[in-house]
Amino acid sequence: MEPGESFVDAVTREMKEETGLDIKNPRLVGVKQFPIKDGRYVVLLFKTTEFNGMVVSSDEGQMEWVESNRLLEINTVDDFEDLMRVISDPVLTEFQYIVDEGTWIVSIK
Q: In this structure, are residues 33 and 43 in contact, taking their beta carbons and an 8 Å threshold?
């Protein structure tokens, strides 16, 4: 985020910069958090179905459209399935890593 920038403005700008898409009406659907030294790192999860433009790759990586039924075939982060559950299920809002004696445990609420 840039100084003074709202969360919605930040996600809209980042999507344009990283994917080439102009998104509209992003909706906050959850939070992902994990511990870091002296605090925690928080990621806001947004969702939208309104966009214009063509997907382009960036320094963030190779971008391409993937059918939802093929997502499990794609090389993603280890917690992708759990993260998508939080994004997709309107009852869930929080994905949290809790460290217990050196073991990272996922808590979904």
A: yes
What are 11-57's pLDDT values in tens digits?
Answer: 999 999 999 999 999 999 999 999 999 999 999 999 999 999 999 98
DSSP string, 32-72: EEEEETTEEEEEEEEE-SEEES----BTTB------GGGGG
| Closest of 11, 44, 10 to residue 29, by C-alpha | 44
Reference 30, options 84, 80, 73; nearest CA is 84
The mean pLDDT of the chain is 94
